[in-house]
Design a protein that fits this description.
181 residues, 6 helices, 4 strands, elongated, 61% helix, two-stranded antiparallel sheet
């Protein structure tokens, strides 16, 4: 860790936080399924993020230019805007990825990327990638909203069921819970 540059250290910390999120996702999916909530369906693993980080560092060290080149909005090639170039290497869309694959790969990292770095990266996107990314974000937000509604409905059902119950004595004068299912 001490051998990392400040730029590398920032990305390392983002990756570590994203890895913790990914490690907890199966537990969240399991607990949510008890409430009838659809699982998020994450395909990324913490090991994938480690590999992403290592590749970005290696590529950055092997780069001949001081700034990576990206396609800007009018299709020409230009240097990236200021920001963490290593993080941008991780977040940029690869030529062999669909927009959906790209979004699934970067989503855990984006959720832990500071706003300033996020905006610097987003400014480097082509018009087509920017539009596709925004559509996928809206879709993800809609799915989150639906999952929250599912959780609210399941919780409300549990509360209603519990409120419909009462304790009554049985033949042995023991109290048993009776619910109006």
């Amino acid at each position: 860790m001490n051998s990392l540059s400040p730029e590398e250290r920032e990305v390392y910390e983002i990756i570590q936080k994203a890895k913790r999120d990914l490690q907890h996702q199966p537990i969240a999916d399991f607990l949510g399924s008890g409430f009838g909530i659809s699982p998020k369906g994450t395909t990324q693993t913490p090991q994938d993020l480690d590999l992403e980080f290592q590749n970005a560092i290696r590529d950055s060290n092997n780069s001949t230019s001081s700034q990576p080149l990206v396609n800007n909005y009018n299709g020409s090639v230009a240097p990236t805007k200021p920001g963490n170039r290593i993080l941008q290497r991780i977040l940029n869309k690869r030529s062999n990825e669909t927009h959906e694959q790209w979004y699934a790969r970067i989503d855990p990292v984006i959720s832990r990327t500071p706003g300033e770095e996020y905006r610097a990266w987003k400014a480097t996107l082509s018009s087509a990638d920017n539009k596709a990314y925004d559509v996928l974000v809206r879709k993800e937000n809609e799915q989150k909203r639906q999952r929250m509604q599912e959780a609210d409905a399941a919780l409300w059902d549990m509360i209603k069921r519990d409120l419909s119950c009462r304790w009554v004595p049985d033949a042995n004068d023991n109290y048993v819970k009776v619910c109006n299912d």
